[in-house]
Design brief:
This protein is of the alpha/beta class. α8 runs antiparallel to α10, α9 packs antiparallel against α10 and α17 packs across α18.
Length: 569
């Protein structure tokens, strides 16, 4: 519900603060008093197009604030959550839209004092307020929203969710099938190449760490003579001879000499009173480590393989691995993974037919489910359309549209246009003259007729609609008397469901209002200003009498006003 409207420095309005209410609210006033300015200002707060022309002459900027009290489940809160502008909402929280327009044409938009884009402001405004005027091109006149309106009217939301879920599953399985077909087709196109490469790599049998190990072995083999000479020199030094024969030089070996020195000290150790203990222990450790070193040199000498044929074999394998890596544009380390990948691709070719059959079965089943759900939704829409057409047939004649024919056109789209909402295209059509084929609302009905058609539609759709404030701009244009009274009666009935704000010249409509404001243009200090007066019962009677009689209010007009007010209850 729109609870408050504050306008500063917009055209003829210098400052205006309006507290609004639930039910039927009417705005009246003489032609030119500024009713359209009020709606233009509200439109500014709702994200409609603004400009420097709206700023009051002589002012730097104009500002409009609109305050709302949406229920907890209102879509506006979800929009704000999706933009990370709110976290939690409690019952009674207020949502305030504000728009500033500068004299230079620049503007800013806010929601609860947070800066937002005008696009987001309009999105919020569209779900909070519906404005219906004679030339309005939004809301019910937009065919893009007719299908959703029919679904709400027919209580088809549950069926719609099932259809959307089935569509998503159909698309997912169809995409998986298409991807598998494309992959198999591509794989088959290179099958011979894959088999050739796999055979090559299987023969080569690359293993993780191959390159490093082979490179290390090659370096060792290339330096083999130097390494052998170094081992011989080491053995000669360790055994004290030139032959390097451990057995022949054992008597002169390092370990033997250390043992001789250790025994010499042990013979006098007791006499030394412990002074030689550290030396004896050190010689023991040195002897043990010397023996380990001698054995290590001997083992290295025995294991050294300097066969030139082995060096050739190592180099051939290393070069073969590196050549394969260059050929396939991977590292040598990556050859094993490449072989495994090619093997998997070949396996997918070999098993591709079976996998495709499985995916085709899944896709067919998903499409069948979608067809069932879309058909169920389409039948529900057909029933809802018939029901809505009957309801409109009852609503139009009392509004002086007895020759009008309303039709909810439901047609089937081509398969390429099917979607989460099924396959139906829905559009509201009308013919206002007998014999004419019904056509789109915004192309067939005249301005005055259109406002009344919108009212009839709103009344018909009222019980299942989203909670939004409704504003009708001169919905009673071109009608009077009994028809105007029927318009007022329907507006009052509609106001039982939601807040309805009406700009009207009809006393019959004004008499049915729960709240009545008069828009007045006054001259102050040579400048025109528009103000709004909240009418108490006495002034309200005078305003309705003025609407009946014109400039000169007569007793007869007052009596007629009393009669209208009494009849309205």
């Amino acid at each position: 519900m729109l609870s408050a409207l504050s306008i500063s420095n917009i055209v003829l309005i210098d400052q205006l603060d309006l507290d609004l209410h639930t039910g039927l609210c009417v705005l009246t006033g003489e032609t030119g008093a500024g009713k359209s300015i009020l709606l233009d200002a509200l439109g500014l707060a709702l994200g409609r197009r603004g400009g420097a022309g709206l700023v009051r002459k002589g002012c730097d900027r104009g500002t409009v604030m609109a305050a709302f009290n949406p229920p907890l489940q209102h879509p506006a809160w979800e929009i704000l959550r999706s933009q990370d502008l709110i976290q939690d909402v409690t019952d009674g929280d207020e949502l305030i839209l504000r728009r500033q327009v500068g004299a230079d044409g620049r503007g800013r938009a806010f929601v609860n004092d947070q800066v937002i884009s005008t696009t987001l402001l309009r999105q919020l405004g569209d779900c909070l307020v519906e404005v219906h005027g004679q030339h309005d091109e939004r809301g019910l006149l937009n065919p893009a929203g007719h299908r959703d309106l029919l679904d709400v009217y027919g209580a088809l939301e549950g069926v719609g969710k099932s259809c959307a879920k089935a569509y998503d599953n159909m698309r997912r399985t169809a995409d998986s099938l298409a991807e598998a077909k494309a992959a198999l087709r591509a794989a088959r196109e290179e099958e011979d190449y894959l088999r050739h490469v796999c055979a090559e790599l299987e023969d080569l049998d690359p293993q993780p760490g191959d390159e490093e190990a082979l490179d290390r072995t090659r370096t060792l083999l290339r330096q083999g003579e130097k390494i052998a000479e170094a081992l011989r020199d080491a053995q000669a030094a360790l055994y004290g001879g030139g032959s390097g024969d451990a057995g022949g030089a054992a008597g002169n070996g390092v370990e033997q000499r250390l043992r001789i020195a250790q025994r010499a000290l042990q013979r006098v150790a007791e006499s030394a009173g412990g002074a030689l203990d550290n030396a004896i222990e050190g010689l023991e450790r040195a002897a043990v480590e010397a023996m380990e070193g001698i054995e290590g040199v001997a083992d290295a000498a025995r294991s050294l393989d300097l066969d030139p044929a082995r060096l050739e074999t190592v180099e051939e394998r290393l070069f073969a691995l590196r050549e394969a890596a260059r050929k396939h544009r991977v590292s040598v380390e990556g050859l094993a993974a490449l072989r495994d990948d090619f093997a998997r691709r070949l396996e997918s070719i070999d098993n591709g037919g079976q996998r495709l059959a499985t995916l085709e079965a899944e896709a067919d089943a998903a499409k069948s489910t979608y067809l069932v759900e879309a058909e169920r939704l389409s039948k529900g829409r057909a029933k809802a359309a018939t029901k809505l057409d009957r309801a409109m047939a009852g609503e139009l004649p009392p509004l002086a549209l007895d020759k009008a024919t309303f039709q909810t056109a439901v047609s089937r789209r081509d398969e390429g246009d099917w979607g989460r909402g099924g396959w139906d295209r829905v559009a509201f059509h009308i013919s206002t003259n007998p014999g004419n084929t019904p056509g789109p609302l915004n192309k067939v009905a005249s301005g005055g007729e259109l406002s009344r058609v919108m009212l009839a539609l709103k009344v018909a759709l009222a019980h299942n609609r989203e909670p939004a404030s409704l504003i009708f701009d001169e919905v009673d244009s071109g009608v009077g008397g009994a028809v105007a009274d029927k318009v007022g009666e329907r507006l009052a009935r509609l106001a039982d469901e939601t807040q309805v704000i009406v700009v009207t010249h009809s006393p019959q409509v004004a008499a049915r209002a729960g709240h009545h404001w008069r828009i007045v243009k006054q001259a102050r200090n040579g400048e025109a200003r528009t103000t709004v007066e909240d009418l108490a019962p006495g002034p309200r009677r005078e305003e309705i009498a003025r609407m009946l009689a014109g400039a000169t209010i007569t007793d007869e007009a007052r009596a007629a006003a009393d009669s209208l007010l009494q009849a309205a209850g």
